[in-house]
């Protein structure tokens, strides 16, 4: 594993170890990390049997864990809003845990449901994935905790175990947290290949690394965190899923991933037609972008990002004024393309930017938000990092 990445993960790891000592007075048996992610393209298609292209970040959640001899589970985070949780292995299921601890406890519950003999444990986490920014701090938390638990349960690492962890993390978020997320985040956190984006095909769950070649093309991928999250995000996410299920039902298929653009036009309800049009066009854009990247033409991907944003804004209606503002400003300042990323209603956008234009784009998105009286966004250049792993 490359040394720079290990250094990047050391900050959260050290803080998790310190938190474990401070809150639970324990020395860790080990420290596990799992990455946040940014989705390049393929938004709101995971729950529609589509394809998407996320990339694991070098930013991670670290979990420092000490196994216990009894059935107690004690969870802490150094996030100032996160209260410590104490319970028993048998109390971690739906309805048993609320707040941040549900993400961690939910994974321990789902692993037990899958037949893993999870030990009692003292655990502390720390993350440098910004929380609630659309970079999937939630899946990184679930996956760091999940990998720690299976290793402490004595299960050897193999590909089947990683898939089991993906499924457990999804169950935790869907059934214990109660967030209807579709599986992209957990899949890339567990299965990412270092140095590449990950093409995930939700028809069969298969994954394939796609090296982007950004550095070779003189390009940077910028994440622009609007630092805003509108309260309607969670309810609207579920509503979009229901719209898609209804549209698929009318068209007589199990997911919208199976339909064509011509099928979409058969939907008479304008709202359902627009939702389905986004899904079908977005999946086509994923395929086009992957083809361009594989042909060494990553610098030509900008218009696909722009089209994805327009589709999410106009057909899927999940953008926000902050996202529209930074996307327009980034493009005007020299980005080749830009789009909102993640679930929407705030969170982050991405921009594909020639190295020489990075400073201009950074300045432009800040100026545009200030001008409109919006929260000042934070920009970071991101590179791809490895999947969840044991750090020490
Ligand atoms: P995202 O996954 O885009 O960051 P979510 O709303 O899905 O946004 O997940 C954010 C939530 O996950 C936080 O509000 C918190 O409950 C939980 N969470 C994630 N990381 C941590 C952490 N290190 N400590 C405590 N809670 C965390
Ligand atoms: Mg999340």
Structure description:
The chain is of the alpha+beta class and 392 residues long. The chain has 2 domains: 3-209, 2-Layer Sandwich (Ribosomal Protein S5, domain 2); 211-382, Alpha-Beta Plaits. The protein has 11 helices and 13 strands. It has helices at 3-24, 101-113, 137-152, 159-177, 184-191, 233-251, 261-264, 270-294, 302-314, 321-332, 358-371, and strands at residues 30-39, 51-52, 54-67, 72-77, 85-88, 121-127, 197-201, 206-210, 219-229, 337-341, 346-354, 378-382, 389-390. The strands form 3 sheets. A 6-stranded mixed beta sheet has the order 5-4-6-3-1-13. The chain has a 4-stranded antiparallel beta sheet with strand order 10-11-9-12. Adenosine-5'-diphosphate is lined by residues 61, 77, 79, 82, 100, 103, 125, 127, 131-138, 141, 342.
* Count of discrete structural domains: 2
Q: In what order do the strands lie side by side in the largest sheet? A: 5-4-6-3-1-13
* Distinct ligands, ions and cofactors found in the model: adenosine-5'-diphosphate, magnesium ion
In helices, the fraction of residues equals 40-55%
Mean pLDDT comes to 96
Measured between the Cα atoms of the first and last residue, the distance is 12 Å
Low-confidence stretches: none
| CATH level 1 name of the largest domain | Alpha Beta
Major sheet: size, sense and barrel closure?
6 strands, mixed
DSSP summary: helix tally: 11
H/E element sequence: HEEEEEHEHHHEEEHHHHHEEHEE
In total, the number of strands is: 13
């Amino acid at each position: 594993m490359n040394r720079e990445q290990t250094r990047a993960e050391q900050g959260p790891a050290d803080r998790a170890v310190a938190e474990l000592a401070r809150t639970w007075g324990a020395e860790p048996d080990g420290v596990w990390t799992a990455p946040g992610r940014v989705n390049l393209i393929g938004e709101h298609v995971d729950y529609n049997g589509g394809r998407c292209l996320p990339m694991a970040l070098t930013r991670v959640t670290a979990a420092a864990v000490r196994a216990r001899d009894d059935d107690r589970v004690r969870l802490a985070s150094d996030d100032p809003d996160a209260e410590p949780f104490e319970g028993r292995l048998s109390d971690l299921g739906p309805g048993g845990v609320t707040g941040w601890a549900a993400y961690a406890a939910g994974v321990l519950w789902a692993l037990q449901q899958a037949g893993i003999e999870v030990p009692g444990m003292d655990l502390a986490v720390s993350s440098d994935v910004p929380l609630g920014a659309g970079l999937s701090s939630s899946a990184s938390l679930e996956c760091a905790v999940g990998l720690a638990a299976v290793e402490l349960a004595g299960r050897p690492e193999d590909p089947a175990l990683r898939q089991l962890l993906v499924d457990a993390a999804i169950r935790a978020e869907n059934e214990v947290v109660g967030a209807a997320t579709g599986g992209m985040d957990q899949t890339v956190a567990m299965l990412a290949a270092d140095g590449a984006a990950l093409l995930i095909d939700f028809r069969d769950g298969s994954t394939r690394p796609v090296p982007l070649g950004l550095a070779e093309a003189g390009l940077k991928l910028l994440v622009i965190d609007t630092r805003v999250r509108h309260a309607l995000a969670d309810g609207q996410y579920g509503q979009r899923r229901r719209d898609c299920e209804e549209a698929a039902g009318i068209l007589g298929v199990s997911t919208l991933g199976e339909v064509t653009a011509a099928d979409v036009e058969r939907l008479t309800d304008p709202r359902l037609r627009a939702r389905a049009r986004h899904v079908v066009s977005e999946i086509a854009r994923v395929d086009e972008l992957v083809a361009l990247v594989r042909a060494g033409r990553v610098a030509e991907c900008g218009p696909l990002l722009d089209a994805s944003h327009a589709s999410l804004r106009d057909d899927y209606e999940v953008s926000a004024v902050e996202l529209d503002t930074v996307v327009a400003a980034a493009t005007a300042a020299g980005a080749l393309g830009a789009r909102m990323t993640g679930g929407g209603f705030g969170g982050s956008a991405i921009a594909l930017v020639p190295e020489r234009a990075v400073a201009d784009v950074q300045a432009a998105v800040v100026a545009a938000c200030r001008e409109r009286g919006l929260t000042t966004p934070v920009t970071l250049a991101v590179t791809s990092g490895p999947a969840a792993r044991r750090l020490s």
